[in-house]
Design goal:
mainly alpha, 20 helices, 59% helix
């Protein structure tokens, strides 16, 4: 980071910034532990013997056992399942990916011995979990040869862009990308790839972040579901991850946009403080009601030309990647938006929306918040 950017961030955040979100966006090599081999008994024989009549049963049993076995036995089963059906190969690939993500599955330690089998399984099945393994563990030359096929899997498109971001032969589809990722991830790829960003889009993204999050928070139903939204420290600049967005915009030489946004946010912060003091003096409203009023106050003070973003006609949750992190795509139903419009933009945007709503991350959030209002 250059000194000018660091000084600007210090001034904006009074030294309280860490770019945690930025660090998470960077590609990282995975530490590999070496393990010793060990075989498994009869189930593996049944699975390999197509005449045993027990292939499906053995596969089912091996998959159920897999998370609970020592790593030595996991290794043998993993090698076997990677050579099986698409369902079996994808199943074990989820556990291999969990070694990095530490999510729902107990992870299986990655070994370089898996590389040829992962390549074979990927080239046969083109499954999303296998695609993640290819992007993470295969050589850059191999990933490059598979880029076209990998690009067709929306779930891994950001990871593919991140891995090939410095490869001049790889063309990033920014329209596709912004429909699949949050604002920080989008800005990260634009910055790393040197594609850059226009001041118009940079400005819109900063206010869109505030507008969509405040809109979600201003709805009483959603407020009960997402009460931990980090919005009400009475400083908009403390919204989680916003420091990374500002850092990336500064890196793309959008200082004027950042300055204008920071000046606006400070004015709104003052109004929020005044409003909160009014609540305390008059002892009016419940905590929930007051916070909803603060969210509405933020919306009311958006720049006039961007306030349309705060009033989506679709579910607010469709525009949130995860809590407080809106997608980078502009809401597609805005037909008279003053930017990024051309004769074919509407169809492009609607297509992107369909892709985005199939994003498992968006679906997971919708499940967490509930599919119907109650």
């Amino acid at each position: 980071m250059n000194q000018k950017t660091e000084n600007t961030l210090n001034e904006i955040f009074q030294g309280e910034w860490n770019l945690h979100a930025y660090k998470q966006l960077q590609y990282k090599n995975t530490f590999i532990e070496s393990q010793e081999e060990e075989t498994i008994p009869s189930l593996m024989d049944w699975y390999q013997n197509k005449r045993s009549g027990k292939v499906s049963y053995a596969g089912m049993r091996l998959k159920k056992m897999l998370p609970f076995l020592p790593s030595k036995e996991q290794y043998e089963i993993t090698l076997l399942l990677l050579q099986g059906s698409k369902t079996d190969a994808e199943y074990v690939a989820q556990y291999l990916n969990a070694f990095r993500y530490n999510k729902t599955h107990k992870p299986i330690t990655w070994r370089d011995e898996y590389i040829p089998l992962v390549k074979q399984a990927w080239e046969r099945h083109h499954g999303p979990s296998l695609a993640q393994l290819v992007i993470q563990y295969m050589t850059i030359d191999y990933v490059r040869t598979q880029a076209e096929a990998l690009s067709e899997i929306s779930k891994v498109y950001f990871e593919l862009c991140r891995r090939l971001v410095h490869d001049r032969t790889f063309k990033i589809d920014t329209h596709k990308l912004k429909a699949l990722v949050d604002i920080n991830a989008y800005l990260f790829i634009l910055s790393e790839s040197k594609l850059g960003i226009t001041s118009q889009e940079a400005r819109r993204l900063l206010y869109q972040w505030i507008a969509i999050t405040a809109s979600l928070y201003s709805d009483p139903y959603y407020y009960r579901s997402v009460v931990n939204l980090p919005f009400f420290h009475l400083s908009l600049r403390k919204l989680q991850g916003l420091d990374t967005a500002i850092y990336l915009l500064l890196e793309m030489e959008q200082e004027d946009v950042v300055k204008q946004f920071v000046a606006w946010s400070r004015l709104v912060d003052n109004k929020l403080c005044d409003k909160k003091q009014e609540f305390r003096r008059n002892c009016i409203g419940s905590n929930t009601e007051n916070h909803i009023q603060l969210a509405n106050l933020i919306i009311e003070n958006l720049p006039e030309d961007l306030i349309y973003i705060a009033h989506p006609q679709e579910d607010y949750r469709n525009y949130i990647h995860h809590i407080a992190h809106p997608f980078a795509e502009i809401p597609p139903y805005i037909l008279d938006a003053p930017e990024e419009r051309s004769e074919n933009k509407t169809s492009e945007s609607l297509e992107a929306t369909t892709t985005r709503l199939n994003n498992p991350l968006a679906q997971k959030l919708m499940e967490e918040l509930g599919d119907t209002k109650g």
